[in-house]
């Protein structure tokens, strides 16, 4: 699963992704507000007759080209009892296709000097990317087209079993044997009860992974991995006319079908606090994790949540760090994040206790800090620091054409969520509109004590003998 503010990490609205044109329709970036021209990313967007959307952006800083494909499907689109399919299929895409031998996709690209070579899955999309020397662009496009059009020819029960075991091992490492992993999963399930499609983990459950068969995998591919449900971004040092011809050569004849609809789901509303006290057998220190449901990515309040998260836990001067780590010496670490997603986002505060400190004490202190924000908001200086942080992160990511968070990914992400690849200036402008009063109102209306999930993940000894009045305050 991925999380990225700088490259825009979740879908925008329930109504789904922007429709693709059925005939080539070149499109230029929209005009920017005065003074923001420097943030513009030059690009051209068009669609092939089979529905494949193409984004081209020339960047001649280095003789390399990033090839980045987004399939508009993620864990959100899975069927009940088949969680983890989007992520499992990400693995299957590297197993070989009709004209590419088993397990040589990565090796072949690496032999050409490719870098930033990987794939990722989130609730809302799956992407595959590589950066190659400019003279090897054609090979990269051929490899991507072969698995887009002809992966089914190479899927076997043996390949499925191999990747199933790889994914199951990932789940063991990231959830079942990871510190706080199982407890965090239970908290997430409490935030998004069934049948909400966010209920399951992107990596899936052991039960559903074991139930997957070859027919399930093939059906998933046929429905979601068509050209009409994909966007190809090419960014870097390339000839536009020659590249368009290559795209047509390798992708133009691939069969397609109508783009499947994104399911619409009503937002979850917590009407009472949910308190979970879980025994933590891996980590040695207690964890307090508090989570609220917040506005979806790019909706009103999303940027405000980002700013507040920065003010609470980024840097030694941040409010929670200063109070819990420096002044009262109650915590080993603190973090606050806004996990922006397409259907609904999640605002989290995580605190790892120091030895001898209970999670109930941490909760009291966190609530005291949040009460201050609810009553007074935060300062203009805190907002300015947060803006600077997001500006810097975003612009730093744009220095690279490829990789996770590079320019190709940024164009893909904005296009996926708002239908406009060149949305950097508009995105950063959201943070300029955040005010102390807006943060105060957000804390009052959204971060309510009566509408949250509170997780106490405590090692066994701490559960059996909670501290008494001798706890440090």
TrEMBL record:
Residues 213-389 form the Peptidase M16 C-terminal domain. It holds the Pfam family Peptidase_M16. InterPro entries: Metalloenz_LuxS/M16, Pept_M16_N, Peptidase_M16, Peptidase_M16_C. It comes from the Bacteria. Residues 1-21 form the signal peptide. Coiled coil: none annotated. Keywords: Hydrolase, Metalloprotease, Protease, Signal, Zinc. Residues 55-174 form the Peptidase M16 N-terminal domain. PANTHER family: NARDILYSIN, NON-CATALYTIC MEMBER OF PEPTIDASE SUBFAMILY M16B-RELATED. Belongs to the peptidase M16 family. This is Insulinase (Peptidase family M16).
